[in-house]
Specification:
Structural class: mainly alpha
Distance between the termini: 19 Å
Low-confidence stretches: none
Helix content: over 70%
Number of strands: 0
Number of helices: 3
Radius of gyration: 11 Å
Mean pLDDT: 77
């Protein structure tokens, strides 16, 4: 997730999305709790929206 934040800060939106997707997919393969998955996805969306609003 930190790499996605850095990418968004550097105005590399495509890379930021790719890094966010990779982080979620990495965690997704080990998640059996649906609520935990939702929390990760919500965090990814918040990161995206925060840096999108700053640019």
């Amino acid at each position: 997730m930190w790499w996605s934040i850095e990418a968004f800060k550097n105005e590399e939106e495509h890379l930021g999305r790719m890094e966010t997707t990779a982080a979620v997919e990495l965690v997704l393969s080990h998640i059996s709790d649906y609520h935990l998955l939702v929390q990760y996805l919500e965090a990814a969306v918040r990161i995206y929206e925060e840096y999108k609003s700053q640019n």
